[in-house]
């Protein structure tokens, strides 16, 4: 394969000759794309593996090529950023080894196992940037398996990627910045938004203001969506506890508790989530150290301020190592690439690296403010009825998890072994967090003290009869 | 009855396919999920109760939108683009 193009960049004598395949990035979202761009600018051509059809990640998910809506229509205030990320991947892809529609399903001893078009292949690496992103953080509610119920991210993808609303009359619920953004995008696109049900009380958002003022433009956008919805007659309710979603074979309504009142609404679709959770399975299989993050209420792979994981040669960037959002992901991708290059002996702009670290620290403080504004509903587990289906893959209920705890089990992997929660096809991506909350509550332990659901290969299901590349 | 509602990008080529052996159609650029759910209200039955499911995350993570194609492949409907004349079969699931 091609050797690295050095250009004006000097390489230390002992730096390894770096071929296309030896530096690999997993994930072509904002972090992965900026990382690839930075590596290439220094003469190092990475291999960029991405599960999606087109780069951009979930936040800047692109519509199919022949669709006609403008970036402004799709991404609103973020149109400029989205276009910049898309232009970058379009320009890069001829110069790097870009492999879309490629699932990385295992990592072992410096080799990634991939699947593309039903064919398995191995990608060896010496240096790896893991930019695996996030999915919605889900706290199940009775009725959430009904057709017509989607995650907030899903509702947004239906609109951005397919030009569809998830229903005729849609309710948005949960909390986090995405809640108001998606409701706004739906209303703006002509959908009927029946209500926004925010689990966080208004007082929390007032309390968070001082920290949020650190990123005034982001705060202003959040306030704008909220004000726009109110101005356009969309009811917004705060301090809401979702009681259940009703329907026989599809959604027909939702009921919730607000203070002492029970309220109902007719709808044919509902999207909900409580912010995001990191996709950490790959970091886990790579042997990265994990630590409890109180801010994310999750176990996360540890990284130093420059983006290094605990495993030599493995770097972490973007929401996959802790939720910080798309702007931070772009910065963290560039930073991890600069760190990697510096570690390899390339001459890098140290001042830029320090500036990126400073900006990321500022976003982290803002993130603390968001957590105050949209607090995790800590009473969720206590309120979850025994009949609630927690694991949608294998239909394991809250009551079955509690029964397992009553039999003396409290470590989440042990609970999984006993009652199969988290063992289904999604590998706990949808239910793992909720199961952990229930185990912690039922066993009287802190949620940080019931263990960490381990990742297992294949991290996503593989079809039978996979052909291996020769 | 349709679950999803098209709001934009309606001016696209129509692609015929079959759904459970019956003639159906979607638009070029639709995922299988979109093509099915703009006409119908489920994609599969649960493996544990047979209850209808229609996907959940739309980003290839929840594994709740698998359908079967004519060539025997099982694919995630949210991550697979519709091709003309493809045969899509929905699996009814099972009850315990």
Automatic annotation (TrEMBL), chain B:
<keyword id="KW-0560">Oxidoreductase</keyword>
<dbReference type="Pfam" id="PF13510">
    <property type="entry name" value="Fer2_4"/>
</dbReference>
<dbReference type="InterPro" id="IPR036010">
    <property type="entry name" value="2Fe-2S_ferredoxin-like_sf"/>
</dbReference>
<dbReference type="InterPro" id="IPR042204">
    <property type="entry name" value="2Fe-2S-bd_N"/>
</dbReference>
<dbReference type="GO" id="GO:0016491">
    <property type="term" value="F:oxidoreductase activity"/>
</dbReference>
<dbReference type="GO" id="GO:0051536">
    <property type="term" value="F:iron-sulfur cluster binding"/>
</dbReference>
<protein>
    <submittedName>
        <fullName>Ferredoxin</fullName>
    </submittedName>
</protein>
């Amino acid at each position: 394969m091609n050797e690295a193009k050095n250009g004006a960049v000097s390489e230390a004598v002992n730096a390894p000759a770096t071929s296309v395949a030896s530096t690999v990035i997993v994930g072509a979202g904002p972090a992965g794309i900026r990382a690839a761009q930075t590596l290439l600018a220094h003469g190092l051509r990475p291999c960029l593996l991405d599960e999606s059809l087109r780069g951009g990640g979930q936040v800047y998910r692109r519509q199919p090529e022949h669709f006609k809506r403008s970036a402004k229509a799709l991404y609103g205030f973020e149109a400029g950023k989205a276009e910049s990320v898309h232009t970058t991947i379009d320009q890069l892809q001829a110069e790097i080894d870009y492999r879309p529609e490629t699932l990385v399903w295992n990592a072992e001893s410096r080799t990634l196992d991939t699947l593309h078009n039903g064919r398995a292949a191995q990608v060896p690496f010496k240096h790896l940037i893991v930019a695996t992103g996030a999915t919605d953080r889900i706290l199940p509610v009775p009725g959430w398996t009904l057709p017509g119920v989607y995650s907030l991210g899903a509702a947004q993808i239906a609109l951005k990627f397919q030009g569809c609303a998830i229903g005729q009359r849609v309710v948005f619920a949960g909390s986090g910045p995405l809640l108001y953004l998606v409701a706004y995008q739906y209303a703006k696109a002509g959908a009927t938004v029946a209500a926004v049900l925010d689990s966080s009380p208004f007082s929390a958002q007032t309390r968070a203001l001082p920290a949020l003022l650190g990123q005034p433009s982001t705060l202003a956008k959040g306030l704008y969506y909220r004000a726009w919805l109110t101005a356009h007659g969309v009811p917004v309710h705060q301090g809401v506890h979702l009681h259940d979603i009703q329907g026989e074979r599809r959604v027909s309504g939702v009921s919730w508790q607000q203070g002492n009142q029970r309220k109902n609404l007719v709808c044919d679709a509902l999207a909900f989530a409580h912010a995001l959770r990191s996709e950490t399975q790959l970091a886990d299989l790579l042997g990265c150290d994990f630590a409890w993050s109180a801010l994310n209420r999750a176990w996360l792979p540890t990284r130093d301020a420059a983006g290094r994981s605990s495993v030599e040669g493995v770097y972490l960037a973007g929401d996959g190592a802790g939720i910080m959002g798309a702007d931070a992901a772009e910065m963290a991708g560039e930073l991890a690439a600069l760190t990697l290059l510096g570690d390899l002996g390339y001459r890098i702009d140290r001042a830029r690296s320090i500036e990126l670290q400073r900006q990321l620290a500022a976003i982290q403080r803002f993130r603390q403010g968001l957590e105050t504004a949209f607090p995790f509903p800590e009473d969720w587990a206590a309120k979850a009825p025994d009949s609630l289906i927690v694991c949608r893959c294998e239909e394991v209920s809250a009551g079955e998890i509690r029964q397992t705890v009553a039999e003396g089990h409290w470590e989440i992997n042990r609970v999984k072994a006993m009652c199969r929660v988290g063992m289904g096809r999604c590998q706990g991506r949808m239910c793992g967090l909720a199961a952990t909350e229930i185990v912690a509550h039922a066993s009287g332990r802190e949620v940080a003290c019931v263990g960490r659901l381990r990742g297992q290969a294949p991290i996503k299901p593989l079809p039978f009869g996979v052909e291996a590349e020769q | 009855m349709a679950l999803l509602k098209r709001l934009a990008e309606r001016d696209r080529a129509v692609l015929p396919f079959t759904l459970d052996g019956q003639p159906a159609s979607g638009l070029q650029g639709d995922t299988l999920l979109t093509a099915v759910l703009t006409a119908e209200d489920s994609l599969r039955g649960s493996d544990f109760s047979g209850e209808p499911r229609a996907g959940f995350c739309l980003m290839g993570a929840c594994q709740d939108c698998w359908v079967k194609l004519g060539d025997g492949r099982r694919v995630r409907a949210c991550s697979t683009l519709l091709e003309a004349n493809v045969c899509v079969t929905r699996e009814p699931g099972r009850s315990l």
